[in-house]
Each structure stands twice: as C-alpha cells, then as structure tokens.
Amino acid sequence: MPTGKVRFYDDEKGFGFITSDDGQDVFLHSSALPEGASVRKGSRVDFGVADGRRGPSALSVRVLDAPPSIVKAKRKSADDMAVIVEDLVKLLDDMGGDLRRGRYPSNSQARKIATVLRKVADDIDV
C-alpha cells in the first residue's frame, strides 16, 4: 500500500488531498476514512488507490500517525486514565498470583490481557 501525508483536508466539506511518498496528489474523500477517524494536514496515512473521474482517489485509508495536536485532543482525561491503570494493576496482580501458583492464563484470557496492555500503552504514549 502506498503511504503519504495529508496535504489538505476540510472536515466540513469531507474531502482533501494526500501527497504520496512518490509525490503524487491523491484525492481523499471522507468515505475512505475509517469510522471515527479524523485527519489533518500532516497526518501520515497509508491507502489504496483507484482511478477516479478526476484522477487517483484514495481507498481504505489507515491513519498511521496524526499530528500531536490531534492525538492530545483525543486523549482520555488523567482521571479516566488513573481508573483504567488501577484496574489494569488489579488484573495483572491477579494474573501474577496465578503464575506464582504455576498456572498460566488461558489463551482467551491472555489475549484479553495483551489487548488491554496494548491499548493502555497506546493511550499513554503520545
């Protein structure tokens, strides 16, 4: 998949342009973005390309990284994160007790714990 940076995007109009890493301008319509995703000038994305009526158009856009102002605006509040981290500590403490008794978590439980750890890490790391 090609990658590039958003050169321009207007939320109200629902379209913009991506400059691909090879220098090509690609039309970006809001329907190509994942639900709930937003982009601004400078957001790194990867995308599929299709020939549109007026040139190349982006398909299946995935936001790789957003400018810091977007990331910080979507951050959970410190109070919310404190509750999440406290719950995570309890979860890990329970798992630690089981491990001390020689029992590993089940596959489904291990996947859930790994998913939660990744999500919390993503929320903390800006």
UniProtKB/TrEMBL annotation:
Ranges for domain CSD: 1-63
GO MF annotations, alphabetized: nucleic acid binding
GO CC terms in record: cytoplasm
Coiled-coil residue spans: none
A Pfam cross-reference name: CSD
InterPro entries in the record: Cold_shock_domain (IPR050181), CSD (IPR011129), CSD_CS (IPR019844), CSP_DNA-bd (IPR002059), NA-bd_OB-fold (IPR012340)
Main location: cytoplasm
Subcellular location: Cytoplasm
Alphabetical list of PROSITE patterns matching this protein: CSD_1 (PS00352), CSD_2 (PS51857)
PANTHER family: COLD SHOCK DOMAIN CONTAINING PROTEINS
Name of this chain's protein: Cold shock domain-containing protein
Lineage, uppermost ranks: Bacteria, Bacillati, Actinomycetota, Actinomycetes, Micrococcales
